[in-house]
From TrEMBL, chains A, B:
N-terminal signal peptide: none
Pfam family, one: TetR_C_46
Organism: Streptomyces sp. gb1(2016)
This protein's record includes keyword Cell wall biogenesis/degradation: no
DNA-binding region (UniProt annotation): 35-54
Swiss-Prot/TrEMBL keywords: DNA-binding, Transcription, Transcription regulation
Name assigned to this protein: TetR/AcrR family transcriptional regulator
A biological-process GO annotation: negative regulation of DNA-templated transcription
Length: 214, 214
């Protein structure tokens, strides 16, 4: 008995192994095509054990979305040091984001493609992640704008729109970087930094592109 | 007989009416929740006639995606006058894009939310639209970069990444603008122009944000 017991992994560890296998399978084969047999085999456990722990394919997928969302948000937040100049904070956040999505392509595929393309409740789950990231970016841009003491101050609605634009651009670039051979996380971050920083800095100082005709 | 005949609408006209009703219903209620009964009623025709013309809910939805995609691409292309300076072209394209998505909120909801969140074959249909828009934007940025004669020239891969970023930002902003009271198409276009133009212009002239530490 004790020999058997010592071989037993704690439930939490085994669950993580199952979810590692699930993220890999869902990310690479897609939610529909992925089978519980495949996931169990990859995790090195029996299929009934997967069902015992995670209940159903739907609940397993939901658990994967939550785990990968949490990991992504934490990676971005950990990368940004409050108190740095605004451009350094943005650069650090972008580096954190693209490094995480490059190192976890299956997790990113689960969030960016699979979760959003298989209806509810998954669309809402990944929508919650998006809102969290947008709120974080809104906070960064708002703080930077206040620091810049622009006059007139950048309206909250503009800050909200800019956060949407930046997050949308980052999502699109991460998807592209992960399927384009040879694009590193640093290059992707650099592309977006170059794309967005000059405009953001101008806006924070009350400058912008001026339409000459309309 | 001739009285009845004269009341008959040509098939193409009736089909457009059915698709107008379908886009509105799919956009407002979602693909799953929308019923063929509802669509037929809104179009003022019998349900069998909808099936006769469009075969199935899936084919009707696919037809809606194609029609709305085509209309969006044409609106953007029509807005851009080749030969104008690069910033005017971008501004005109953004105005065209946001005006179209604001004027056709149901069509945009079909493309941006519904088509991408209900699996295949819809995800591929809307993916084809995205590729067409990205290709058009890639052409614009590439032409502008060549005009600017930057030295070294902006590499094709950077142009491709920038097009991804711009399209991702535009998609996110259009979704946000359509659910945020009081954000006009012109404001959304202006936000994205201010956000993106300074960075693009810098890149076209071989300038960019310089990381000071890494």
């Amino acid at each position: 008995m004790s020999a058997v017991k010592s071989k037993r992994m704690p439930r939490a560890v085994r669950e993580q192994q199952m979810m590692d296998a699930a993220v890999r399978t869902f990310g690479q084969r897609g939610y529909r095509a992925a089978s519980m047999d495949e996931i169990a085999e990859l995790a090195g456990v029996s299929k009934p054990l997967v069902y015992l722990y995670l209940n159903s394919k739907e609940e397993l997928f939901t658990a994967c979305i939550r785990r990968e969302s949490k990991a992504l948000v934490e990676a971005v937040q950990a990368a940004v040091e409050p108190g740095m100049p605004a451009d350094r904070q943005l650069w650090a956040g972008l580096r954190g984001f693209f490094t995480h999505t490059a190192e976890n392509p299956d997790g990113w595929a689960v969030l960016h493609q699979q979760a959003s393309s298989h209806g509810e409740p998954f669309v809402s789950e990944v929508g919650a992640l998006r809102e969290e990231i947008v709120a974080f970016v809104t906070g960064l841009i708002g703080a930077a704008a206040r620091e810049a003491h622009s006059d007139p101050a950048l309206p909250d609605r503009d800050v909200a729109g800019l956060a949407q634009a930046l997050v949308g651009a980052a999502e699109a670039l991460a998807g592209w970087a992960n399927v384009t051979p040879g694009v590193s996380a640093k290059e992707a971050a650099s592309t977006l930094m170059n794309f967005s920083w000059a405009g953001l800095e101008n806006l924070m100082h009350g400058r912008g592109w001026q339409s000459r005709e309309d």
